[in-house]
TrEMBL record, chains A, B, C, D:
<feature type="binding site">
    <location>
        <position position="111"/>
    </location>
    <ligand>
        <name>substrate</name>
    </ligand>
</feature>
<protein>
    <recommendedName>
        <fullName>Dihydroneopterin aldolase</fullName>
        <ecNumber>4.1.2.25</ecNumber>
    </recommendedName>
</protein>
<comment type="similarity">
    <text>Belongs to the archaeal dihydroneopterin aldolase family.</text>
</comment>
<dbReference type="GO" id="GO:0046656">
    <property type="term" value="P:folic acid biosynthetic process"/>
</dbReference>
<dbReference type="GO" id="GO:0046654">
    <property type="term" value="P:tetrahydrofolate biosynthetic process"/>
</dbReference>
<feature type="domain" description="Dihydroneopterin aldolase MtpD C-terminal">
    <location>
        <begin position="7"/>
        <end position="113"/>
    </location>
</feature>
<dbReference type="InterPro" id="IPR027508">
    <property type="entry name" value="DHN_aldolase_MptD"/>
</dbReference>
<comment type="pathway">
    <text>Cofactor biosynthesis; tetrahydrofolate biosynthesis; 2-amino-4-hydroxy-6-hydroxymethyl-7,8-dihydropteridine diphosphate from 7,8-dihydroneopterin triphosphate: step 3/4.</text>
</comment>
<dbReference type="GO" id="GO:0004150">
    <property type="term" value="F:dihydroneopterin aldolase activity"/>
</dbReference>
<comment type="subunit">
    <text>Homotetramer.</text>
</comment>
<feature type="binding site">
    <location>
        <position position="15"/>
    </location>
    <ligand>
        <name>substrate</name>
    </ligand>
</feature>
<keyword id="KW-0456">Lyase</keyword>
<keyword id="KW-0289">Folate biosynthesis</keyword>
<dbReference type="Pfam" id="PF04038">
    <property type="entry name" value="DHNA"/>
</dbReference>
<comment type="function">
    <text>Catalyzes the conversion of 7,8-dihydroneopterin (H2Neo) to 6-hydroxymethyl-7,8-dihydropterin (6-HMD).</text>
</comment>
<dbReference type="InterPro" id="IPR007181">
    <property type="entry name" value="MtpD_C"/>
</dbReference>
<dbReference type="InterPro" id="IPR036839">
    <property type="entry name" value="MptD_sf"/>
</dbReference>
Amino acid sequence: MTDDAPTDAEAACFEAGIKFGSLYHQFAGTPVSPDSADSVATAMEEAIENQPHCREVSVDVREDELEAALAESAADYTELTGRFLEVEIVVADGGLEVVARMAMEDGYPLMQLASIEGRSSE
Amino acid sequence: MTDDAPTDAEAACFEAGIKFGSLYHQFAGTPVSPDSADSVATAMEEAIENQPHCREVSVDVREDELEAALAESAADYTELTGRFLEVEIVVADGGLEVVARMAMEDGYPLMQLASIEGRSSE
Amino acid sequence: MTDDAPTDAEAACFEAGIKFGSLYHQFAGTPVSPDSADSVATAMEEAIENQPHCREVSVDVREDELEAALAESAADYTELTGRFLEVEIVVADGGLEVVARMAMEDGYPLMQLASIEGRSSE
Amino acid sequence: MTDDAPTDAEAACFEAGIKFGSLYHQFAGTPVSPDSADSVATAMEEAIENQPHCREVSVDVREDELEAALAESAADYTELTGRFLEVEIVVADGGLEVVARMAMEDGYPLMQLASIEGRSSE
């Protein structure tokens, strides 16, 4: 028996990671202002929800952080980056449901698994 | 006299080019389906309108081409690329107004200046 | 007891997914030709190897596919997309090693886990 | 007579702008460290040189700025952004040659035309 084959739960966690990396690196760098924050958040949600097994994506552009960044700047917009984002992604495959989140930790946009429900061994 | 300094009209055309390159390379590769086409189009418009001297951006995701591409595919979404886009960008600076457009020509998403109004020499 | 907390192996698979999504959506859309294929492949490898727990990234730009695409086109370059890529990523965390790969399947760039070694329960 | 048609020099400046916007928004967000700076710089140069009428692209990743940013951070890499870049692009079309540059000004990565040589009216 080969015990190095992925379990269904591991495969679902891999899928959740793909969605996070896709979301971040597709949209990081987008010009963003308080006025355009909602439209990029909606586009990020709907774009990534197209990907396989992606049940739901919730993107919150943190307008407080955005306004703090713009207050220090001569410009009235900036580039979208992790500092301005809170994201939750739910992946569902078969009976499995994986929830993962991104938020800032020590100045780095940390992506983490929150929970995995429905493992077949449970 | 140095005659190689840019004119105001040339600078405005450079600005229009920046907006087109930005729009295309920021959003190319985004997962897109008929259901999510409107949200990515709106995000593209509002994101690029943040850039300096950008008066208006109009993005049309060609849903006919999108549905034709999906009909040939096992997937129900694809990646955003020039084949699916028609774009017009208007840059205004001082009394100058530059209009530029992108549409497919020979299978290549050709970006072109359409008009420049208000040159100081006129 | 909450049995929905992620295992170390599930967390490592999530990390491997992040690397794949990042690599793909950062670099998809890059102008590429047979002459520039090596430099983008090297940049992709070295960029993603910066990410946490990423032991090794191997990117092969499929020059046969690239030349086939260019033969059908009036242009001498095209946009980087999954059709032109074969990728292997190795993530290592503690005693765990996750190997994942991307290759075309039915016209879609399928990213899959290949193996997970070193689970603590083994 | 329509005096709003673009001149050859204006069209060349538009092309130069496209290259700058493409370069910036394709590669902004790439994970970068002092060790991987050279490979991303080379990939940026060779990718954009594929585009029409692009004679030469020179990208310098400012390792001093990169090390200063990393000294303030818990991570050993960061995201590529304008703060870390100096870029020169030369576009040539017919007898025209346009030189444009990007460098930081007031915390914003300013892209500017430097010179245009060979206008037909000269």
